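User: Some background: our group keeps a shared notebook of sequences we're curious about, and every so often someone picks one and asks for a predicted structure to add to the entry. Today it's my turn. The entry only has the sequence so far, pasted here. Could you supply the structure so I can complete it?
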Amino acid sequence: MKRFLLIIAMVLAYLPAFSQINLKDSTVQVVAYWQKGEKYFYDTKSYELLIENGDTSTLYEINGRFSIEVIDSTANSYKLKYKQENMPDLKSLSEGKDTVTQMVFNVMEKYMDRINIPVVFITDEYGTFQDVEGIDALQKEMYSIVASMVKDFEMEFNSKFLGDITEEEKKQTMAVIEELYNGFILEQYKDRQGIYKNFKEIINLLTFHGTKLNLNKEYISSSKEVLPIYGDSEIDIKETFYVYEYNPETSWIYIDYFKKYNPEQLNELAFNMAQQIASNVEKKAGKLPEGSEIKKEDIPEFTIDCYTGVQVHTNTGWPGNVYSEKRTKKGKSINLG
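Assistant: Of course. Here's the predicted structure to add to the notebook entry:
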C-alpha cells in the first residue's frame, strides 16, 4: 500500500539521551532506548492504483490512525501496545463491485470495532519482535468474530438470493466466503508469526532503533519473508538501504529502503495458494464445477518490488514521516499500493 504516516504528537521536550554523530568516520547513532510512557500517534492514508494499458485508476483509498505506546521496559526488552485509534472505512473497497463482494465488506464493517483489539508486542532492547502478549485470548476472540461474520453473511445472502440459486451453489458460495474471512482475519492471528506478519509494516517502523549507520555506505542483505495471508512458505528477498540525508540541527535522518521478492517463488506460492483454496472449498461444499480446476497457466506471472522512505529522529528512535510503495505486476497490469 501507498502509505503516508505523519506523526501527530511528538513532543520533544527535555530528553536525557541524545544521538551522536561522528564526523571522522561519518556515522550517526540512533538513540538506543525508549522510556516507559512514550506514546506516539500516526495518521495513515492508504490507496491502491491500477495501471493497465496506459490508464490509471484508483481501486480504493482508506484513512486511519494508530498509536504505539511503551507500556513497560526492562534492561533487555520492551512492551509496546499497538492500537487503532479510529478504524478505516471499508466502503471504498466495495464501491463498484458485485453484490456479493459488497456484502462481504458490509458484514466486515459491522465488526470493525470488535476486531480493533489492542495488541501488545514484546521486543528485545533494539525493538526487534520477540513475542505477543495474551495470544490465546486474542485468538479466541478472533475465531468468535469470524464465526459470527460467516453467520451474518449467510443471513444476508439468503435474504437476497434464496430461491435464485441451487443449494449446491449456495454451499459453494458459503465455503468460498468462509475461506475469505479466514484468510482476512484468522490466518493473521493463527500463531505468533501470523500476528507478526500482519503487523510487520508497523514493527518495521522501529527497525532503526539503536542502530549505528554509516552515512556513506549502502547496506545490502538477503533474507526470507513469509507474506501475510499466503501461508507459511518463505520467499527469498533482497534488501538495500542507505542514509541519503542527515540534519544534525534537527536530529532527523532520512533513509531509502528497497526490497525485491524472488519472482519464481512468488508465482509458485500463488499457484499453491489457489489450489489450497479450491481444495478447502471442495471439502466443505463438494466437487467444484467441471472446468474450474486450477492450472498454472491460469495464474498470471507477477513480481513484487517495494520502496520505503523513512524519517527517523535520532534523539528518540521514533519514525516521523514514512512513504511506502509496493509495486505488484500481474501479467500486463501493475498495482501500486
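Suggested note for the entry: The longest strand covers residues 55-73. The helical segments are 91-94, 99-110, 112-115, 135-161, 167-189, 192-198, 200-203, 263-285.
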